[in-house]
Amino acid sequence: MRILTHSAWLEPVGGVEVCTLQDSLGLRTRGHALDVVYGVDGPFREQYEQADVGLFGPAPFHFDPRRAPGHLRSFLPAVRWARARRPDVVWLNRTEHLVWGQTVSRLTGAPLVCHLHVLPAYRRMRLFGHGVAHFAAVSEFVRGSYLERGVPPERVSVLPNAVRRSDYPVGGRTERAVARHRLGLPQDAPIVLCYGQMTPEKGVATLVRAWSAVRARRPDAVLVLVDALAANGQRPSDGLLRGLDPRAYRLFGASGDVVPFLHAADLVAFPTLLPETFGRVVIETMSSGRPVVASRVGAVPEILGAEMEHLLVEPDAPDELARRLESLLDWRVTEPDLGGRCSAWVDQCFAFDAHLDGLEDIFARHARGRAVSAPTRAARRLRR
Do 257 and 334 share a domain, yes or no? Predict the structure, then answer.
């Protein structure tokens, strides 16, 4: 099957770009041909090229009805390239680019499958969703938001995000020591990691207040922040950190590889205030064998259910966040099996192979003429 998708950035600006990359590479390993139209070039290019993924860009995706003729004309170079690739399905990962996806789908003749990583970009999704063969939501929370906007239930399935264990491997004490040495972090200090976009909406101010309380009782603890928005000497998060003892934290810029930071940490904080559509940080962290303390918002409780529910805290509650973080700083002593339970939870609930099976099945059901079939899990077993 030949699949055409898009990525606004070829860099880890957010979870959508990371999911698109890893899903694309996974589909390539299963023998599918992948082509990607991109908006902004970046470090992901090398991984796409190594996997023999076709790339076209930079290309615009934005559409404003007030400037419809000009914006539609701006789509034409990508459309011409896409038509030459003859895709069996167009796979859209951002609904704010829905008009671009519909245009490419119509002019290539390939059905459009929309992967719902974000909340609805349009109030009347039933109307704007016209021409979409199927929607795949990353959580029940996201599915519900599209149903509320008028998308028929039978057109929206749930396909949770997943991670490959090899991308976020478990790290023990040896890996922790190596990672801390590499990053210049103290070997014996309890370390809490927070990574992603360091903005008020992601709860950084809440975390700063909580960390001041933690440090009052555990002055040896260190907060490590990896800011996806920090680049070229610019650090937007500096203002949010004002007032925090400089000895209490270390700030790093954007990184395409978070594994060394995960291995260096004892646990991870995800204090977001946003109605998260999934919470990829949660499963990345747990895959590496570390607990995560996360806000009870959006789809996050879907990930941290049952035996992992104790890792949830209320959003914008610095006192509760401080208590939960402090209680887990020494989990290797007080709860030594917690790391193994975390990684097993991801294997059980968010296995990457099962995720790819679901994605393949959706594509196969809606591919051009339905003449192209994807190998299902059962079929692969039979071939073995």
Answer: yes
